[in-house]
Structure formats: C-alpha cells, structure tokens
Amino acid sequence: MNYQALSAAIKAKKSYLCVGLDTDLAKLPKHLLGDPDPVFAFNKAIIDATAEYAVAYKPNIAFYEAQGPRGWESLQKTLDYIPKDCFTIADAKRGDIGNTSGLYARAFFDKSAAGLDFDAITVSPYMGHDSVQPFLDYPGKWVILLALTSNAGSADFQRQLVDNETQELYETVIEKAQSWATHEQLMFVVGATQAEQIAHVRELAPRHFLLVPGVGAQGGSLEQVSKNGLTPDGGLLVNASRSILYASSGSDFAQAAAAEAKVMQQEMAGYL
Amino acid sequence: MNYQALSAAIKAKKSYLCVGLDTDLAKLPKHLLGDPDPVFAFNKAIIDATAEYAVAYKPNIAFYEAQGPRGWESLQKTLDYIPKDCFTIADAKRGDIGNTSGLYARAFFDKSAAGLDFDAITVSPYMGHDSVQPFLDYPGKWVILLALTSNAGSADFQRQLVDNETQELYETVIEKAQSWATHEQLMFVVGATQAEQIAHVRELAPRHFLLVPGVGAQGGSLEQVSKNGLTPDGGLLVNASRSILYASSGSDFAQAAAAEAKVMQQEMAGYL
Known about the structure:
- The structure is a homodimer.
- By secondary structure, the first copy, chain A, is an alpha/beta fold.
- The first copy, chain A, has one domain: TIM Barrel.
- Chain A is 43% helix and 17% strand.
- Chain A has twelve helices and ten strands.
- Chain A has an eight-stranded parallel beta barrel with strand order 1-2-3-4-5-8-9-10, surrounded by seven helices.
- In chain A, helix 10 links the parallel strand 9 (210-212) and strand 10.
- In chain A, helix 2 (38-50) runs parallel beside helix 12 (253-271), helix 9 packs parallel to helix 10 (222-229) and helix 10 (222-229) packs across helix 12.
- Chain A is globular.
- At the A-B interface, helix 3, helix 4, strand 3, helix 5 and helix 7 of A face helix 3, helix 4, strand 3, helix 5 and helix 7 of B.
- Chains A, B: It catalyses: orotidine 5'-phosphate + H(+) = UMP + CO2.
C-alpha cells in the first residue's frame, strides 16, 4: 500500500488506528485453547471485530517466533486474513549487514520465500545506512525506522547529545535517514510516551508518517500525540495492542476489542 | 556454557574459531538439493568437518527465517546437532521493549518454547537497558551486544561523538553495558574490519569476550585482531562464515571447509 492509498484510507475510515497483534497464548480466552490454531483463531476474531475502525495491523514478530514453526504458520494465516485495504507492519526490529538484511527483507516482503508479504517492517538504525538499504530495495515496501522509542531505556543512547552537542542521537537518525528514502517509503517510530518530542519530530520530518506505540497500556496520550503529529495527509499511525486485544478475557473478547477500537477511532475522527 | 568452560575449550582446542552458519539455499552444492532438508544436510556435514577446529557455531537467523517454518525446523535440527562442548550463538540482532525482548529471549533460550536453547544471542543496543535485561534474566545465558560492527554503515551512528565530545557512541555502549552485566554474561560485537579499534575496546573492557566477524569475505586481518584482542582467558571468538561454508561448491565442500577451518585454527594456535 503506497502513501496516497494509506492517506486515503485514513480519510475514508476517519481513523489512524493500528491494532498491534501481540498475541500471547498465555492471555487467550480459555474457550479458544481447544482450537487447532488458537493464536490464529484469536487474531481472526480480533480482525473481524476491529477492521471497521483500524487502518493498519502490526503483528509483533516475537510473539510468533516464541512458538517456533507453529507460530510462523499462525503469522502467515493472520497476514493472509488481514483485509487488503489495511496497511500491514511486521514489528520485527531487524537490521544487520547488507546480505543479511537482504534475507530479512526477503523473509517479510517476498511471499515466495517465507509466505509473508507485509507492506512494512520496523528496522533498528544502529548499523547504519547499508543495513537499511536492502529493505528499501523492495519497490512499494516501507521501512519504519526506530527513532525515539516508548521505553525508559530510550534515554540510554537515543537521547545522547551528538554532533557538537547540537542534537540528540534520535534527531540525527531522523535527519540522516531522510537522505536514504522519501516520505513515500520511510516512516519513523516515536513513542507516545515522548509526546512533547512529537511536535519536534514533526518539524524535522514534516511529511513522514510516524508509527506511535505507547498509547494505552504504556500510558501515552492520544490527544497530545494527535495534536503534535497529524498532517494534512494523516501522517500518524497510532498503535494500541494490549488495551484492545485483552479488553476482556472472556468469551466476549471480540466485542470488547471492537468497543475499545471504536472509542479510539471516534476520538481520532475528532482530531482529523 | 559458562565463561570458565568457554575459556577451557579455547585452550584445549587451541582455537577461538566460530563458524558462522549463514546457510544459503542458493549456494548449496547441487547434490544436496534432493535431500528432504538440504540446509540441515549441509550444516551437518559442515559441523562434522569443522568441530575439531571450532569452539563455537553461530547460525545467522535471517537465513533460516527467509525460509519460513521449514527454515525454523532446519535451525532446530542444526542446533541439536552441534556438539555440546561447542558454544552456540543465535545471530539474531534482536532488541525491543521489555515484554517483547522477554519473548525473543524465550524463543532462543527456552527449548520448551520454540525448540531452541542457544547459549547466546546477539542484541542491538539502540533501545537501551530495559530492552537487553530480559535476555540477561536467563541464568547461564549470554548477551552479545552490538558495539562496533564490521560494515561501512557503522560510521553513521556508532562513531558519532557523544558525551561532551569525549567518546564515540560505541564506546558509550561498551561502558554503560558493563553496569548491566559482568564478563560472565556479556560479550561485545566488534568487527574485524575495525582492527585498530580492537585494542581500544580491549582497554575499555579488559575481560569481556569479543565476537569478531569480518575476517575472511569481509577482509579483516586475523593477525591484527588476535594481537589486539586476546586475553589470558581467550577473550575472542573470531567468526568466519562464507570463507568456510563455500570454500568449495562441489561435492568436496565439507573437506574444503575442514581445510579452511584448520588453516584458521593453526594460525590461532600460534597466537595463543
């Protein structure tokens, strides 16, 4: 899905909600555990319940990988099930030397390799340009580069002053990466817990989409993120995972997820 | 495998060679392609041929992931086949917020989860302490933190001056991480192409093992790395992947790999 189509979807659905599929076997409603693939059964119900309110889905790859080959199969089925008018993100935080990043790109972008064809993948910038380029070499696919993350450890390195003390490392990441790709192939991760920085990131990268985790369970404010980050084209994908997936632990989990997603979508409609 | 056992293995085998299992289906000898699991058949032959000369094996996870569930099965079989007196490294370069890093740790360290129980995993430092800690929470397991990598892109961020211009980012990573874990649970990745920096890293981290990729296909010098990095306990794991795996593309690939590994081991014996 390209920039124009994503922007159009946001305007049509009046939503920039991304549902994070952090599907944890230990948290699934009991009645699903007898299913041959309880993770997929859960995801299917969540997708059916939330597709009206969400423009993107973001499976968190760790949750699938922790189940070995079976988890990989649940991931394939989940990705195939996501409606084609939704943007799909592999939250994988990969990044390695060129030939290895090329294989990660193949794993997540080329359906003939591992059965997956995500629109986008999250990538760590630590190894620099040649670790990111192989993902950008796939036409029509996106890199979502970690910039300023939502966790406390973001202070350890991302906020170190660099470049003659004039800016922080995450700002250097955002500036340099804009010479690698345009806003039509590159987004940045900025945590909602860093809402005061979002206005600043928006100055540094006026047109790039920002993927914003950390609303909900991690405590970020949707209002502040939206006021600081929205652009005329949308410009935001705000992710919620646990607050939607586990809104109820009972047999009504899908209705509860839909209600939670609807509340977020309606708040978003007000900001658009 | 703990620090003492790894040090003892290095002394017993007179080797600090790590064989990187970057097993690429496209590069396998033709006669293996009819095997039900050609990747495992290749790895098995490589392990048999090199175990006498190597103290560690490092499957590069991208190569397995790019084959989907089948690749994951080849990885499980390969790890099970590596002799128990060898150190095993998942070269995965993971790192995410705490609950997600916890799932990656489970995937690679807990055999009951995804069938894998590596001794160590490579981790990216970009997200800071709380993204690394979940791996350290597994007693007896190791984190190998990216510090100064072997690729050209290492100049983009790792070599930025930080901390009042007194040091580079990779030096800050090495210093901070030493407050997270001792040399008995933490190693650093330093590329062989950065041999002049290895002496400096050795000053910053006198007892920590360094995992050194980039000898061989990437052009680093084993002599310079060894002179700058060895400690009385060993202190180095020098990785070679393509130069060993693809020493011959014919039916003699395993003998050619053994010969290449032996040359490296004998050079290492001279430096120990």
